Amino acid sequence: MSNTSGNPRSTSEYQAFDRRHHWHPFTDTKALNKKGTRVIVRADGVYLWDTDGNRILDGMAGLWCVNIGYGRKELCDAAYAQMLELPYYNSFFQTAHPPAIELSKILAEVTPAGLQYAFFTNSGSEANDTVVRLVRHYWSVRGQPSRDIIISRDNAYHGSTVAAASLGGMQPMHAQGGLPIPGVEHIMQPHYYLLGEGMDEKEFGLLAARALEEKIHALGKHRVAAFIAEPIQGAGGVIVPPSSYWPEIQRICREYEILLVADEVICGFGRTGEWFGTDYYGLQADLMPIAKGLSSGYLPIGAVMIGDKVAETVIESGGEFAHGYTYSGHPASCAVAIENIRILQRERIIEKAAQDVAPYFQKCLAEFSNHPLVGEVRGVGMFAGIELSADKRTRARFKPLGKAGTLCRDLCIENGLVMRAVGDRMILSPPLVITREQIDELIGKVAQSFDMTAKELGIQ
Ligand code: PXG
């Protein structure tokens, strides 16, 4: 197809080079190479454009990250100005630079009380690797080095490095490369729709939380260092836990002195309607990995926010925490994150979304519960998961699993919408700046795609 967008190469040229040289993350390369990649060249607000000039509504904010939307020149200016002034320096060997110092101070202010220190990384995965090392170091300096097991949950996503993928509970990832590493255990996820049939929802929430207590008993309290979880599981399918779940988890962590790690890589910076998922649930985390919305994806940056108990213990013990990355607190990334947070604050993007757009988004989506293809709609704030079901009355699943989701996702793209499929769950997580009119457009495209999917699968 000819190139109408002024790019130096045609779509087919890009596809040819991509096929030959570019190995994509989480991709079946054989299948992609048969089809050819979609090349995105430009974005503005909530829209993307590809090399063929198609305009696509980005219902996923990139990969759950472009919270303030595309095209904010202030972020580009911040990066440019910082790169002219000081493109690189590090925070090793008793030095620092203004952007890293400023950003750490701002993060201490915007994150929940009791998290005063930021350890910078370049991604959520690196943040979770840092968590593993810091948690173990903490127990070691407390004189309990045998407390080295971290408990996580099935179907959790905490990243793709060896440690982060081990913390995650994704079976297909574990199957490749002999994961998880020793010292990581998994418990059930609080997925009521999938696992709670016949139970009262609150009762199920307690049961899922008490799986943690049972695991602690099985392993022995003296072996368990921490529990890690996303306040709401994102990549696992936007699994919103029953209201009884988090208070019980917090009780268990306190009672057994287990560190609570709240992975806020997706929930953080407004996704739930609050600044952080821990604000939404009223949780007190000891460690809080963040990334994605920290810079709205404009440059790579992550961090671990470190709670007072861990920080004081480790600092007081003296000695070096032998961990860090060349680009920990990269000046340009920090400058972009600072500007991103200022925009969130100045324009009250999170508060406005929570008051107006998010309730509208959730209300419109809830109406899909009546669609013959839809088993359940669940969501909070500005993200949602929609379970597709072969038979909504019996909650029957599709065979093979993922067939309906993949079909629906492909139809969405044809209809000009990015909606992610997790198996047969459809996921939406648009930029927080999406307007009501754009939500109407998004809902129209979802409806059209659901109808087409149902027709193709013969579901009435
Ligand atoms: N924690 C959580 C909760 C995440 O969602 C990570 C950590 C790792 O972050 P990095 O920056 O290393 O990717 C994530 C990332 C998807 C998808 O398709 C989700 C993520 C990444 C890529 C794809 O849903 N989440």
Please provide a written account of the structure.
The longest helix is centred in the last third of the chain and has 22 residues, at 436-457. Helix 15 (349-366) packs parallel to helix 17. 42% of the residues lie in helices and 15% in strands. It has 460 residues and is an alpha/beta fold. It folds into two domains: 38-71 and 348-457, Aspartate Aminotransferase, domain 1 (Alpha-Beta Complex); 74-346, Aspartate Aminotransferase, domain 2. It contains 17 helices and 15 strands. The structure holds 3-[O-phosphonopyridoxyl]--amino-benzoic acid. 3-[O-phosphonopyridoxyl]--amino-benzoic acid (PXG) binds at residues 63, 123-125, 128, 157-159, 230, 234-235, 263, 265-266, 291, 420.
Helix content: 40-55%
In this structure, how is the largest beta sheet organized? 4 strands, mixed
> Regarding CATH, which class of the largest domain?
Alpha Beta
Question: What's the overall geometry?
Answer: globular
Strand content: 15-25%
Number of domains: 2
Number of helices: 17
Residue ranges: pLDDT <50 for 5 or more in a row? Answer: none
The CATH architecture term of the largest domain is 3-Layer(aba) Sandwich
Q: Under CATH, the topology of the largest domain is which?
A: Aspartate Aminotransferase, domain 2
Alpha-carbon distance between the two ends: 36 Å
